[in-house]
Write a structure and sequence with these properties.
heterotrimer, A mainly alpha (321), B alpha/beta (332), C mainly alpha (296), A: mainly alpha, 14 helices, 78% helix, 1% strand, globular, C: 296 residues, mainly alpha, 11 helices
Chain lengths: 321, 332, 296
């Protein structure tokens, strides 16, 4: 596990270096943007800005300074939001984490249940429904799915709030009412985001389950006199989860990507909406910070996946690595 | 004579496939007394395992019993409900399989897998079941059982896994244990140990054993009676000693000739058999009214291809019967 | 010596012959959904290619009152919030979406095959390095990364296409590598090697053709996901502002879903039907190219 964590850190470092380099080689820099913001500036002012931001130093030095700051979790200052990037992100990250993990759990739980049921009747109605759902989930653009749900369940049938994360009127309300309000706001975005992956997981669960149900140890379970239910849910399910969890781990990057679109549709105050704002404003420090933290979310997600796999399968646990 | 523990009469099994119905088992009959050891012998695909699965009520989804009865302690299992079969499986009749490497669930400890049957059929609580599981591991001669009870299957060798399977199968002290090729996947030395274990525990618990095998050596080692099957039918049945000494069916002779050293009279050479070539006929041809072995048989005549031979007693041995138009007589 | 009866398992079946193209085609045609999808996709492609010629209304020009519902005043699909013709937008947008989807997918398939083939063929250090790079691109949140590229280097069609292609190749690389690892051990590869084939010939002429079936299936799916990817960027307003695309129509109209939901629903349906057709074709290809898997 320590090896994995070290490796994860190396990946993160690579992400920072790549992004910093990319921004460095792109035409224009912060000084241009700020100058543009101010409606033009003299050469002297530009040079002053460049010196302030260390842009006059050679690239390796700039990178070194940046990396040193990143280690101290200092991502610089956002001139656009007039806030340190770190506190800006700290404010937005929890919302994105909530959305991303809720969506993954939604997708996994519903997907696995549908997959198991359709594996028990591989040619039944539900099985075909799952196949259709999978095709839909894969083929519909997620932002469009979100808008359709918004039109249906917030506008035509006002069951869910249209935007945001919490009812502003509840600012002084007891905590449990605030939580409830967040859950209420969270439902549609999480469902939308889950829709891409839900059917993917259920299809894999179905395939994996069908394979496991043919395994020798399932025959053993039946020969013991276990009921069909115990055989399926106790003996088969745990064995068929491995591939599904692995797939879910591989999807984390896609979930974070999808979250950007879903946050935009539902005005969810997370990293995604912040990313769009800062990209449109060319707010380089914020962009770099967001890229760092979104990669971090993916990496942490992958580590959690590894952990879950170890819990499921003792054969991996035994490895010790 | 009291009624036997298990009496199977004219058992038939059919598969429903896309191309229609296929006969898999055709009028199989045999009896089993308490504590007796019988062996089913034949090549792969002859219906040995299918007979066992029918007894357990575990036929694959496309299969169903098409006739006959399975009388177990006065109850017909062929018509018993699934709920009733669940009470019997693993409790009164249990089964171990050919592949010890894959027959245990990889994600649960062996202790839990043994305890599970005890909790299910004996209503034991977790702790008592676990203590019992340790006893059972000791009984199947797993060293250091108390420590190994929490091991996962992948931490055990193939022989040890088969011992665990035996512990699971015998946990509820069943009346019948079906062992389907239990040692095929194991080393020769381990085979002998497993057989010794099965014999000892079977005798101790008075459990009748049905050993399914294609290995005549295993039969000689393990069973008192044997049933030779071919293409879903019983072709010969009798005491192991009698059949090995004087196989009546040409097919049985072929099987025995494969391992000449087990012949009780090793010095006397068996008459040279015409080479028996070919394979078990495709399952679609099972159930025809003919001797299904005829195409591979050196003694086949016209009648063999046109009519089904009925089982008949072999002269001089009251419990020895053969279904053949041209049986060998009076030994080799 | 006593006679020996062969205690035999059923004879192993002769290895399945390589499926010639015709057989694959037959299997594919047997899949009704895939055939229907092919026809639909063909129609969409034809509409995108010839539509703007046959229906030459400028998609950027305000031609009528905003939010004209579909079917009124001669506007089959109505007009958007700026009174622009939706049908024209859809036809012209189709060109952009399909072109970017296809080119970006080809690009990522090319990168993916190169990475996977080199890693699977050479093993060792090469494999280690290439697979680390692949993993790196797997943890990168792809959409965010592409957004940044587009923002930094300008939202032209070329940049957008590259931004999509550069982040989407990891699946192809993994599949190609797995196939290469499997096939390089087969006898005919050893035979070719013994016959003096160079590494380049081995990779491109001997192994690659046999590795293609799963790659083709993945490539088909890539076109679909590249279209979705482009739609996402355009929806966020990060695509070339000088061309119409389906995602962009949705993005620019989404504030007005209360007034005219059709301006969002219709282009979304266009994306959905296109990508759905492509996935069904991919499924059909998969079944046709891997007949063994059909038994599932």
């Amino acid at each position: 596990m320590a090896v994995r964590a070290g490796y994860a850190l190396a990946l993160l470092l690579a992400v920072v270096i790549l992004n910093f380099t990319l921004i460095h080689i792109a035409p224009g820099d912060i000084a241009d943007t700020i100058a543009g913001d101010m409606g033009g500036a003299t050469e002297e002012v530009m040079a002053q800005i460049r010196a302030d931001y260390g842009l006059d130093k050679p690239f390796p030095v700039q990178l070194g300074i940046y990396l040193g700051n990143v280690v101290r979790l200092d991502f610089g200052y956002s001139f656009f939001f007039n806030t340190p990037v770190t506190s800006l992100i700290a404010e937005r990250l929890p919302a994105t984490l909530l959305l991303v993990f809720t969506a993954q759990i939604f997708a996994l739980v519903i997907g696995v249940v549908l997959g198991v049921i359709s594996a028990r009747r591989p040619h039944g109605l539900l099985s075909h429904f799952v196949t259709l759902l999978a095709l839909f989930g894969y083929s519909a653009p997620v932002f469009w799915t979100g808008i359709m749900l918004l039109i249906g369940l917030s506008l035509l049938l006002p069951l869910f709030p249209v935007a945001g994360m919490i009812d502003v009127a509840l600012i002084d309300a007891p905590l449990w009412r605030q939580y409830l309000s967040v859950a209420h706001h969270l439902f549609l975005p999480a469902l939308t985001l889950a829709s891409i992956f839900l059917a993917l997981y259920s299809r894999l669960t179905r395939a994996s389950m069908l394979e496991v149900l043919g395994a020798d140890y399932i025959r053993t379970a039946r020969a013991k006199g276990l009921s069909e239910r115990d055989t399926v849910y106790r003996h088969a399910l745990k064995n068929s989860l491995g591939p599904v969890v692995t797939l879910a781990g591989l999807q984390f990057s896609a979930v974070v990507s999808g979250a950007v679109l879903v946050e935009t549709v539902f005005s969810w105050p997370g990293l995604g909406t912040l990313a769009l704002q800062s990209i449109l404003a060319r707010d380089t420090p914020t962009i770099l910070g967001i890229l760092f933290f979104s990669a971090l979310v993916v990496i942490v997600g992958n580590l959690l996946t590894d952990l879950a796999l170890r819990l499921i399968d003792p054969r991996i646990r035994g490895g010790g690595g | 004579m009291a009624t036997p523990l298990l009496e199977v009469r004219d058992l038939g099994v059919r598969f429903t496939t896309r191309d229609g119905q296929v006969t898999v088992l055709d009028d199989v009959s045999f009896t089993l007394e308490r504590g007796e050891r019988i062996s089913f012998v034949g090549e792969s695909g002859c219906g040995k395992s299918m007979t066992a699965l029918a007894l357990m009520g575990l036929l694959p989804a496309m299969g169903q019993v098409s006739g006959g009865s399975i009388n177990f302690k006065g109850e017909d299992l062929a018509t018993a409900s699934e709920a009733r079969m669940r009470q019997i499986r693993g409790n009164e009749i249990s089964m171990i399989f050919q592949e010890p490497m894959t027959s245990l669930n990889p994600v649960f400890t062996i202790g839990r897998q043994i305890a599970e049957v005890l909790q299910l059929h004996r209503g034991l609580d977790r702790r008592t079941a676990r203590a019992r599981a340790i006893d059972l591991l000791e009984a199947v001669r797993i060293p250091n059982a108390a420590a190994r009870v929490d091991d996962y299957p992948h931490q055990l060798s193939g022989g040890q896994r088969q011992r665990v399977m035996i512990a699971i199968a015998l946990a509820c002290e069943p009346e019948v244990l079906i062992a389907d090729e239990p040692t095929t996947a194991l080393d020769v030395t381990v085979q002998a140990e497993i057989f010794a274990l099965l014999r000892d525990l079977g005798a101790k618990l008075e459990t009748a054993i049905i050993l399914i095998t294609h290995d005549m050596g295993a039969v000689a080692q393990m069973a008192e009676r044997m049933l030779v099957m071919y293409a879903g039918r019983r072709v010969e049945e009798g005491r192991v000693a009698d059949i090995i000494k004087a196989p009546a069916h040409p097919y049985t002779r072929g099987l025995i000739a494969c391992v000449p050293h087990i012949s009780t009279d090793a010095t006397r050479r068996l008459e040279r058999l015409p080479e028996i070539d070919g394979i078990v006929p495709p399952i679609t041809s099972f159930g025809r009214d003919a001797c299904l072995f005829a195409p591979r048989c050196g003694r086949a005549s016209e009648v063999c291809h046109g009519e089904r031979p009925a089982p008949a007693g072999v002269a001089g041995h009251k419990a020895h019967s053969v279904a053949c138009w041209h049986p060998h007589e009076g030994g080799a | 010596m006593a006679g020996d009866l062969k205690i035999s398992e059923p004879e192993p079946q002769a290895p399945r012959a390589q499926h010639p193209f015709r057989e694959v085609l037959q299997m594919f045609v047997g899949n009704r959904a895939a055939v229907v999808a092919s026809v639909i996709l063909m129609l969409i492609v034809l509409a995108a290619v010839f539509g703007p010629i046959l229906y030459p209304t400028d998609p950027f020009e305000m031609v009528w009152a905003p939010f004209t519902p579909p079917g009124t005043d001669g506007f089959i699909l109505g007009t958007d919030y700026l009174g622009r013709d939706m049908l024209s937008g859809l036809l012209n947008g189709g060109r952009v979406s399909l072109t970017i989807g296809l080119v970006a997918a080809l690009m990522s398939v090319f990168i993916g095959i190169s990475f996977g083939a080199l890693a699977g063929f050479y093993r060792g250090v090469v494999e280690e390095v290439l697979m680390r790079i692949t993993e790196f691109f797997q943890v990168l949140p792809t959409l965010l990364f592409s957004m940044v590229i587009v923002a930094l280097f300008g939202a032209s069609l070329t940049v957008v296409t590259i931004a999509i292609g550069i982040v989407s190749w990891t699946a192809v690389a993994r599949i190609t590598r797995a196939e290469f690892l499997r096939i390089r051990e087969l006898e005919y590869v050893t035979a070719s090697r013994a016959a003096g084939a160079s590494n380049m010939v081995l990779m491109t002429r001997v192994i690659l053709p046999n590795a293609l079936p799963p790659i083709i299936v993945q490539a088909a799916l890539m076109v679909g996901s590249a279209i979705l990817f482009e739609a996402g960027l355009a929806f966020l307003g990060l695509s070339d502002p000088n061309v119409v695309s389906w995602g962009q129509i949705i993005g620019s109209n989404r504030t007005y879903i209360l007034d005219a939901s059709f301006t969002v629903t219709i282009p979304g349906l266009a994306i959905f039907v296109t990508v759905l057709s492509i996935s069904l074709i991919g499924d059909g290809l998969n079944d046709a190219l891997n007949p063994k898997l059909r038994r599932r």
